[in-house]
UniProtKB/TrEMBL annotation:
InterPro entries noted in UniProt: G_OBG, GTP-bd, GTP1_OBG_dom, GTP1_OBG_dom_sf, OBG_GTPase, P-loop_NTPase
Lineage, highest ranks first: Eukaryota, Fungi, Dikarya, Basidiomycota, Agaricomycotina
Alphabetized UniProt keyword annotations: GTP-binding, Nucleotide-binding
Gene3D superfamilies, per the entry: GTP1/OBG domain, P-loop containing nucleotide triphosphate hydrolases
Protein name: Putative GTP-binding protein P8A3.11c, mitochondrial
Pfam families named in the record: GTP1_OBG, MMR_HSR1
Entry-linked PANTHER family: DEVELOPMENTALLY REGULATED GTP-BINDING PROTEIN-RELATED, MITOCHONDRIAL RIBOSOME-ASSOCIATED GTPASE 2
Entries under CDD domains matching the protein: Obg
Length: 573
């Protein structure tokens, strides 16, 4: 017996509040196996404090008026310098003049860039990034330690470009930096400084070394190597292509666990045994570590989601994203406005028969994040998760769907748009820039609100104010929270709900711009994101629109949008 007449399936708990819901959903319980925990459950105060904390963060973000959504950043990256080689001689009882025994320096840390799904903005990335320095060599042939690599985590959809020579935003590379540091010095001082940068001498032997032939030969060889390295590096710069870190959400596996190498660390210096020769049995010099590669990158966050959600705050965009991705996309859900502060991208995986990953768990309720966290905490307290299998182990999710999946598209859940967002009210609209290239947009409105049709007008106006013609990308109107209509299932309430939906449909037919030349109107789909109802229809429609847009764009443009990462190695070592 349906509780309301708009949606096909029902069986909803009758709920007045989130606390009631937490009690209403029976959780499997094993009291005989695990004794009840004495740890206190999260109480009302705690949840209130948490809620306040989250709200304060939102308020702060609002005061920034969208400026903290950083989608362009120039970063100067230095690979770590190599460690210095060591000048030492072996000392042992009864061996008065032991052989040279200085160890080599360790390699400097390489710097990698890695697309990471849970990041949504570039604002956490430092503008100057330096890999760790390698360890210095030590006596008794002890080589210095190689430094750990450093990984820069960036959001998916980040485009990485090297800033070319001649651009004022570019920082000097390792050779240019040295030249700058020598400016204003006379020629003797320059030579002296360059030697200091390259050589380590045995104490009090600096002067003597300079006059020895073995040192002069070694110095010449070192400069020749440097020239060759610089030549190869400059050659390689010509082949740099932008690296688009966006293929990965579409399921590509990481080739390298650390991401993509962007700046190699410098090699370590050589210890004094390396310079032993016929002419010099006791070399009293060693080389310093080489500086790491320096590169200036322009990072641009271009979220290349196929479908972008456009809706007012609290319409349920984040809940819908979570329901469509089977809970994989972690977008925060709460009952206050502007919960989502940055766009979040999720992947919808669809099988041939129209089922999608999110529809595998039919009775799943996607509630507010805080409620879900409380429920999870309760389960942990009861010890239920102690032996729980992971999602992949239990086969409910993930690889299990791989065989059935025939189509996938990405969705971007955006912050709420309100009237005058274009005047930078609310969170502003800077995030829309990341959606300009979405293939389609979906309006999300709250069907339980007093006038969902007015929401549509505001949303369309804001899109148009941002970019003329942008609202033409809208393909579908999702009328969410349909479960709140229909009262207790009485005929009168159902009739009312139906007439409200009908009114919304009529409004869309009369006032919203038709899609394409054939005059097709936006389709209105009533859903309940929270209880995953009627979502198969939404997925079916979105799939059609994405497919259509991809076909229309043609092969060439799609390739431009999604550059194959394999072909665009930024560094070709
Ligand atoms: N009853 C019901 N409540 C829903 C549904 N979808 C979302 N909600 C609730 O609506 C509130 C807002 O949901 P969100 O998903 O955070 O909304 P949003 O559009 O992402 O909001 P912002 O991020 O602030 O723009 C939460 O309290 C949700 O639990 C639904 O289908 N039915
Ligand atoms: Mg949200």
């Amino acid at each position: 017996m349906p509780r309301f007449g708009l949606l096909p399936t029902t069986r909803l708990p009758s709920l007045q509040s989130k606390q009631a819901l937490a009690r209403a959903i029976p959780l499997p319980h094993k009291p005989t196996v695990i004794p009840p925990s004495t740890a206190p459950l999260p109480d009302e105060d705690e949840s209130l404090r948490d809620r306040l904390r989250r709200r304060r963060r939102t308020e702060w973000k609002r005061r920034q008026r969208g400026q903290t959504f950083l989608d362009n950043l120039i970063v100067s990256v230095h690979g770590g310098s190599g460690g210095d080689g060591c000048v030492a001689f072996h000392r042992e009882k009864f061996v008065p003049n032991g052989p040279p025994s200085g160890g080599n320096g360790g390699r400097g840390g390489d710097v990698y860039i890695m697309p990471t799904p849970h990041l949504t903005t570039l604002s956490g990335i430092a503008k100057r990034i330096r890999g760790p320095t390698g360890g210095n060599g030590q006596g008794t042939w002890q080589n210095g330690k190689n430094a750990e690599p450093l990984v820069i985590h960036v959001p998916l959809g980040t485009v990485v470009r090297e800033i070319p020579r001649g651009d004022s935003r570019r920082s000097p590379d390792e050779w240019e930096a040295e030249q700058e540091s020598l400016e204003g010095l006379d020629s003797t001082e320059r030579v002296q400084k360059m030697r200091d940068n390259r050589w380590v001498h045995y104490p009090r032997f600096g002067e003597t070394n300079l006059s020895r032939d073995s040192f002069k030969d070694a110095e010449q060889a070192l400069y020749a190597q440097e020239r060759e390295r610089r030549y190869l590096r400059r050659q390689r710069e010509k082949d740099y292509k932008p690296l688009v870190l966006s293929m990965l959400p579409l399921g590509a596996r990481h080739r390298e666990p650390l991401g993509f190498l962007i700046a190699s660390g410098g090699t370590g210096g050589l210890g004094n045994p390396h310079f032993m020769s016929q002419n010099d049995r006791i070399p009293r010099f060693a080389t310093r570590g080489h500086p790491g590669e320096r590169i200036t990158l322009a990072l641009e966050l271009k979220i290349l989601a196929d479908v972008g959600f456009v809706g007012m705050p609290n319409a349920g965009k984040s809940t819908l994203l979570r329901a469509l991705t089977g809970g994989r996309a972690k977008s925060e859900v709460a009952s206050y406005a502007f919960t989502t502060l940055n766009p979040v991208v999720g992947i919808v995986r669809v099988a041939d028969d129209g089922t999608f990953e999110g529809s595998l768990k039919s009775d799943q309720v996607y509630d507010e994040t805080i409620v879900e966290e409380m429920q999870e905490q309760e389960r942990i307290e009861r010890g239920e998760l102690a032996h729980a299998l992971t999602r992949n182990q239990s086969g409910q999710h993930g690889h299990h769907f791989d065989a059935e999946e025939t189509f996938r598209f990405t969705i971007a859940d955006n912050p709420g748009l309100i009237s005058d967002s274009s005047e930078n009210v609310g969170l502003g609209h800077s995030f829309l820039r990341s959606m300009e290239r979405s293939l389609a947009l979906a309006y999300i409105v709250d069907l339980s609100g007093p006038a969902p049709w007015d929401e549509l007008l505001v949303l369309r106006a804001e899109l148009e104010k941002y970019q003329h013609g942008m609202s033409r990308k809208a393909r579908i109107v999702i009328a969410n929270k349909a479960d709140l209509l229909g009262g207790e299932g009485d005929a009168e309430a159902i009739a009312l709900a139906k007439s409200k939906l009908r009114r919304l449909e009529l409004f869309v037919q009369e006032h919203m711009i038709p899609i394409g030349e054939d005059g097709r109107r936006l389709e209105v789909v009533p859903v309940s994101a929270k209880y995953s109802q009627n979502l198969t229809r939404v997925v079916g429609l979105m799939r059609g629109h994405v497919q259509e847009a991809r076909d229309r764009l043609g092969e060439r443009t799609v390739k431009e949008l999604v550059v194959d990462v394999d072909q665009s190695q930024l560094i070709t070592n």
